Amino acid sequence: MIGRIYGTGSYVPNRIVDNNELSKYVDTNDTWIRERTGIARRHVIEEETTSFMAVQAAKKALLQSEVKPEEIDLILVATSSSETIFPCTACIVQSEIGAVHAVGYDINAACTGFVLAFQTAQAYIDARIYKTALVIGADSMTNLVDWTDRSTCILFGDGAGAVLLRAEEGKPCLMAAHSDGTKANALTGMSRHHKAVTSLEDKITYVHMDGQAVFKFAVRKVPEIIEELLADASLGVEEIDYFILHQANKRIIEAVAKRLRLDLTKFPMNLEEYANTSGASIPILLDEMKRNQRFQRGDKVVLAGFGAGLSWAACMFEW
Ligand code: UT7
Hints:
The protein is α/β, with parallel strands linked by helices. It has eleven helices and 13 strands. A five-stranded mixed sheet has the order 1-7-6-4-5, with helices on both faces. The two termini are 13 Å apart. The site of oxa(dethia)-CoA has 20 residues, from helix 2, helix 6 and helix 8.
């Protein structure tokens, strides 16, 4: 069984902060940010919350799929920046959309979260436990970054994306995933009110990242996991139509394409507009591509996420 994508939706805040505006807050400039990351601007929450954005994206996915909220069995929200620790964001979404028969929970795996949530939903569907699943990625990273740290605050934006999956007979989704907790310190985030009592306090408050370590990890592990995933199905990378990677940095995506010896046109990007929206980046891009009718039935699509944990995951399905 496969969970076929029946509908997608996304939401980004109206407030746009471009690189020039950022240069008023920290010592940076548009040229540096564009050259090192490919980012030109980001959408930043004002009154919005993570759950508000998740609900808006979910409503659009529902509308597009023509599925009734009461038909949904499962709601998964990939987020590491929910405004409440509990209740989980998925239960807030359930209430707001009226998905009265669904069970909902959040998956916190930072930028890898959406791919892991998508895999979880696919596994439930393939096991015939649930038929209809709503998978959302939603994050308000600008709430967690230190706006005085130029090495991290320039990278992130806010948003949410959702996909509505329905069970159909078909080739199951291929999946691979890994974590390496020994490298956890390369990318950490604490809530704003966290009172750390260790000597590392200053370093681990807000988002703290060893940018180069994360960059090297991504460039090595993403091609590796894609090859691992496809080898299991005896597929070559050239048979894949689209590689939809977590939108962290244009140079990471270019390096992955180069390592796989593939044309960059197979690697759609929208990070210039939204920056790194963590768990939301892949579903926002999926929604944009679907609305622009970029997918044909039968297209082979790879999703790949990577980030804090450190963790990385990939999956492949036919559209
Ligand atoms: O979702 C997954 C999460 N994270 C990532 O994917 C991030 C992965 N890493 C990266 O994308 C890159 O490492 C960064 C974009 C964060 C940094 O790029 P880099 O090419 O690794 O730069 P760097 O850290 O080596 O810094 C080069 C220089 C330094 O100055 P010096 O020491 O050479 O004088 C930095 O202080 O650039 C300086 N710098 C900046 N300059 C202007 C660092 N941040 C900025 C800035 N504006 N915002």
